[in-house]
Amino acid sequence: MKIAPSILSADFANLARDIHTVEAAGADLLHVDVMDGHFVPNLTFGPSMVAAIRPVTNLGLDVHMMVDAPGQWVQAFAEAGADTLMIHAEATAHLYGTLQAIRTAGCKAGVVINPGTPVSALLAVLPIVDQVLVMTVNPGFGGQQFIPAMTAKVAELSALRDQQGYTYAIEVDGGITDVTAPAVLQAGADILVAGSFVYAAADPAAQMAKLRRA
Ligand code: DX5
Ligand code: ZN
Fold first, then answer.
1. What is the pLDDT at residue 152?
2. Which amino acids are annotated catalytic?
3. CATH code for 2-213?
4. E strands, the chain, where?
5. Which of 121, 178, 186, 200 to pair with 146, CA 20 to 30 A apart?
6. 92 confidence band (pLDDT: 50, 70, 90)
7. By alpha-carbon position, which residue is closest to atom 7 of ligand 1?
8. Residues within 5 Å of ion ligand 2 by Cβ?
Protein backbone atom coordinates (compact mmCIF):
# COMPACT_ATOMS: atom_id res chain seq x y z
CA MET A 1 0.00 0.00 0.00
CA LYS A 2 1.24 3.47 -0.88
CA ILE A 3 0.16 6.73 0.71
CA ALA A 4 -0.05 9.93 -1.33
CA PRO A 5 -0.79 12.90 0.93
CA SER A 6 -2.67 15.64 -0.90
CA ILE A 7 -1.20 19.09 -0.42
CA LEU A 8 -4.65 20.57 -1.06
CA SER A 9 -5.12 20.44 2.71
CA ALA A 10 -1.61 21.68 3.55
CA ASP A 11 -0.82 25.18 4.78
CA PHE A 12 0.02 26.97 1.51
CA ALA A 13 1.96 29.64 3.41
CA ASN A 14 4.21 26.87 4.77
CA LEU A 15 4.11 24.43 1.91
CA ALA A 16 7.75 23.28 1.96
CA ARG A 17 7.49 22.60 5.70
CA ASP A 18 4.27 20.60 5.22
CA ILE A 19 5.80 18.60 2.37
CA HIS A 20 8.85 17.76 4.49
CA THR A 21 6.58 16.62 7.33
CA VAL A 22 4.89 13.94 5.23
CA GLU A 23 8.11 12.99 3.46
CA ALA A 24 9.80 12.36 6.81
CA ALA A 25 6.74 10.36 7.91
CA GLY A 26 7.18 7.96 4.98
CA ALA A 27 4.87 9.31 2.29
CA ASP A 28 5.29 7.40 -0.97
CA LEU A 29 4.09 10.11 -3.35
CA LEU A 30 2.90 13.69 -3.18
CA HIS A 31 -0.57 14.30 -4.63
CA VAL A 32 -1.02 17.67 -6.34
CA ASP A 33 -4.60 18.73 -7.15
CA VAL A 34 -4.78 20.99 -10.19
CA MET A 35 -8.17 22.70 -10.62
CA ASP A 36 -9.18 25.14 -13.35
CA GLY A 37 -12.47 26.63 -12.11
CA HIS A 38 -14.29 25.04 -15.08
CA PHE A 39 -14.06 21.28 -14.77
CA VAL A 40 -14.50 21.73 -11.02
CA PRO A 41 -15.75 24.80 -9.14
CA ASN A 42 -12.42 25.61 -7.50
CA LEU A 43 -9.04 27.05 -8.50
CA THR A 44 -5.71 25.79 -7.24
CA PHE A 45 -2.31 25.20 -8.79
CA GLY A 46 -0.71 25.50 -12.19
CA PRO A 47 2.59 24.26 -13.66
CA SER A 48 4.56 26.94 -11.81
CA MET A 49 3.50 25.43 -8.49
CA VAL A 50 4.74 22.01 -9.62
CA ALA A 51 8.02 23.61 -10.69
CA ALA A 52 8.34 25.28 -7.28
CA ILE A 53 7.71 22.04 -5.40
CA ARG A 54 10.00 19.89 -7.55
CA PRO A 55 13.34 20.91 -5.96
CA VAL A 56 11.90 20.83 -2.43
CA THR A 57 11.21 17.05 -2.27
CA ASN A 58 12.40 13.70 -3.56
CA LEU A 59 8.85 12.35 -3.62
CA GLY A 60 7.25 11.52 -6.94
CA LEU A 61 4.69 14.16 -7.93
CA ASP A 62 1.29 12.63 -8.59
CA VAL A 63 -0.48 15.37 -10.51
CA HIS A 64 -4.28 15.14 -10.62
CA MET A 65 -5.56 17.40 -13.39
CA MET A 66 -9.13 18.50 -12.75
CA VAL A 67 -9.18 20.66 -15.86
CA ASP A 68 -11.12 20.80 -19.11
CA ALA A 69 -9.19 19.97 -22.28
CA PRO A 70 -6.14 18.71 -20.34
CA GLY A 71 -4.12 18.09 -23.49
CA GLN A 72 -3.13 21.74 -23.70
CA TRP A 73 -1.29 21.47 -20.34
CA VAL A 74 0.60 18.21 -20.74
CA GLN A 75 3.86 19.67 -21.96
CA ALA A 76 3.93 22.41 -19.31
CA PHE A 77 3.33 20.03 -16.41
CA ALA A 78 5.85 17.52 -17.76
CA GLU A 79 8.50 20.23 -18.03
CA ALA A 80 7.61 21.47 -14.53
CA GLY A 81 8.55 18.06 -13.13
CA ALA A 82 5.36 16.02 -12.81
CA ASP A 83 6.06 12.27 -12.52
CA THR A 84 2.53 11.02 -13.12
CA LEU A 85 -0.05 13.09 -14.99
CA MET A 86 -3.63 12.02 -14.45
CA ILE A 87 -6.49 13.26 -16.62
CA HIS A 88 -10.23 12.82 -16.22
CA ALA A 89 -12.10 10.63 -18.70
CA GLU A 90 -14.91 13.24 -18.57
CA ALA A 91 -12.64 16.15 -19.45
CA THR A 92 -11.62 15.38 -23.02
CA ALA A 93 -12.97 13.91 -26.22
CA HIS A 94 -9.39 12.78 -26.93
CA LEU A 95 -8.68 10.53 -23.98
CA TYR A 96 -6.53 7.97 -25.77
CA GLY A 97 -4.47 10.57 -27.61
CA THR A 98 -3.88 12.68 -24.53
CA LEU A 99 -2.71 9.64 -22.55
CA GLN A 100 -0.31 8.85 -25.38
CA ALA A 101 0.91 12.45 -25.31
CA ILE A 102 1.57 12.19 -21.56
CA ARG A 103 3.80 9.17 -22.13
CA THR A 104 5.56 10.83 -25.04
CA ALA A 105 6.26 13.78 -22.72
CA GLY A 106 8.07 11.38 -20.38
CA CYS A 107 5.48 11.03 -17.60
CA LYS A 108 3.49 8.10 -16.35
CA ALA A 109 -0.07 8.33 -17.64
CA GLY A 110 -3.08 8.08 -15.37
CA VAL A 111 -6.81 8.22 -16.02
CA VAL A 112 -9.42 9.36 -13.50
CA ILE A 113 -13.17 8.71 -13.22
CA ASN A 114 -15.75 10.77 -11.36
CA PRO A 115 -18.30 9.01 -9.13
CA GLY A 116 -20.87 9.04 -11.95
CA THR A 117 -18.59 7.46 -14.55
CA PRO A 118 -18.44 3.66 -14.85
CA VAL A 119 -15.27 1.60 -15.29
CA SER A 120 -16.63 0.53 -18.68
CA ALA A 121 -15.85 4.06 -19.96
CA LEU A 122 -12.16 3.18 -19.57
CA LEU A 123 -12.00 -0.19 -21.34
CA ALA A 124 -10.31 1.19 -24.45
CA VAL A 125 -7.53 2.98 -22.56
CA LEU A 126 -6.74 0.49 -19.78
CA PRO A 127 -4.00 -1.19 -21.87
CA ILE A 128 -2.02 2.07 -22.10
CA VAL A 129 -2.32 3.55 -18.59
CA ASP A 130 0.08 3.30 -15.67
CA GLN A 131 -2.49 4.33 -13.10
CA VAL A 132 -6.28 4.47 -12.67
CA LEU A 133 -7.71 6.87 -10.10
CA VAL A 134 -11.19 6.19 -8.77
CA MET A 135 -12.75 9.33 -7.27
CA THR A 136 -14.45 8.42 -4.02
CA VAL A 137 -15.94 11.93 -3.67
CA ASN A 138 -17.09 14.47 -6.26
CA PRO A 139 -13.91 16.33 -7.19
CA GLY A 140 -13.25 19.95 -6.26
CA PHE A 141 -12.71 20.12 -2.53
CA GLY A 142 -10.98 18.38 0.33
CA GLY A 143 -12.72 17.18 3.44
CA GLN A 144 -15.77 15.54 1.83
CA GLN A 145 -17.42 12.25 2.76
CA PHE A 146 -16.29 8.99 1.17
CA ILE A 147 -18.89 7.41 -1.14
CA PRO A 148 -18.95 3.68 -0.23
CA ALA A 149 -20.49 2.55 -3.54
CA MET A 150 -17.21 3.45 -5.31
CA THR A 151 -15.48 0.45 -3.75
CA ALA A 152 -17.14 -1.79 -6.35
CA LYS A 153 -15.25 0.07 -9.11
CA VAL A 154 -11.96 -0.68 -7.40
CA ALA A 155 -12.88 -4.38 -7.29
CA GLU A 156 -13.87 -4.27 -10.97
CA LEU A 157 -10.56 -2.66 -11.97
CA SER A 158 -8.65 -5.18 -9.89
CA ALA A 159 -10.46 -8.12 -11.52
CA LEU A 160 -9.88 -6.66 -15.01
CA ARG A 161 -6.20 -6.25 -14.26
CA ASP A 162 -5.93 -9.90 -13.25
CA GLN A 163 -7.95 -11.19 -16.20
CA GLN A 164 -6.24 -9.09 -18.85
CA GLY A 165 -2.73 -8.94 -17.47
CA TYR A 166 -2.78 -5.13 -17.19
CA THR A 167 -0.20 -3.44 -15.02
CA TYR A 168 -1.85 -0.21 -13.83
CA ALA A 169 -1.85 0.84 -10.21
CA ILE A 170 -5.26 1.53 -8.67
CA GLU A 171 -5.57 4.73 -6.67
CA VAL A 172 -8.47 6.14 -4.65
CA ASP A 173 -9.04 9.79 -3.79
CA GLY A 174 -11.53 11.48 -1.51
CA GLY A 175 -12.67 10.90 2.06
CA ILE A 176 -9.93 8.36 2.78
CA THR A 177 -9.40 7.75 6.51
CA ASP A 178 -8.39 4.83 8.71
CA VAL A 179 -12.11 3.93 8.74
CA THR A 180 -12.75 4.06 4.97
CA ALA A 181 -9.38 2.68 3.80
CA PRO A 182 -9.80 -1.02 4.72
CA ALA A 183 -12.66 -1.65 2.26
CA VAL A 184 -10.89 -0.06 -0.73
CA LEU A 185 -7.63 -1.82 0.12
CA GLN A 186 -9.42 -5.15 0.32
CA ALA A 187 -11.02 -4.41 -3.06
CA GLY A 188 -7.56 -3.96 -4.58
CA ALA A 189 -6.50 -0.32 -4.20
CA ASP A 190 -2.72 0.23 -4.27
CA ILE A 191 -2.45 3.96 -3.58
CA LEU A 192 -4.44 5.96 -1.03
CA VAL A 193 -4.70 9.72 -1.49
CA ALA A 194 -5.37 11.46 1.81
CA GLY A 195 -5.72 15.20 2.27
CA SER A 196 -7.66 16.36 5.30
CA PHE A 197 -7.10 13.11 7.23
CA VAL A 198 -3.36 13.77 7.15
CA TYR A 199 -3.08 17.54 7.17
CA ALA A 200 -6.08 18.72 9.20
CA ALA A 201 -4.74 16.85 12.25
CA ALA A 202 -2.21 18.08 14.77
CA ASP A 203 0.18 15.22 13.98
CA PRO A 204 0.28 14.26 10.27
CA ALA A 205 2.83 11.50 10.93
CA ALA A 206 0.51 9.82 13.44
CA GLN A 207 -2.36 10.02 10.93
CA MET A 208 -0.23 8.33 8.27
CA ALA A 209 0.70 5.59 10.73
CA LYS A 210 -3.02 5.02 11.36
CA LEU A 211 -3.59 4.64 7.61
CA ARG A 212 -0.77 2.10 7.35
CA ARG A 213 -2.29 0.06 10.15
CA ALA A 214 -5.59 0.08 8.24
C1 DX5 B 1 -10.61 16.42 -4.33
C2 DX5 B 1 -9.16 16.13 -4.54
C3 DX5 B 1 -8.54 15.33 -3.46
C4 DX5 B 1 -8.58 15.97 -2.10
C5 DX5 B 1 -8.90 14.88 -1.14
O6 DX5 B 1 -11.15 16.98 -5.48
O7 DX5 B 1 -8.95 15.43 -5.75
O8 DX5 B 1 -7.22 14.91 -3.78
O9 DX5 B 1 -7.38 16.57 -1.70
O10 DX5 B 1 -9.12 15.44 0.11
P11 DX5 B 1 -9.67 14.55 1.30
O12 DX5 B 1 -8.68 13.45 1.56
O13 DX5 B 1 -9.76 15.54 2.41
O14 DX5 B 1 -11.00 14.01 0.88
ZN1 ZN C 1 -6.92 14.54 -6.07
1. 98
2. 33, 173
3. 3.20.20.70
4. 2-5, 29-35, 60-66, 84-88, 108-113, 131-135, 169-173, 191-194
5. 121
6. very high
7. 139
8. 33, 64, 173
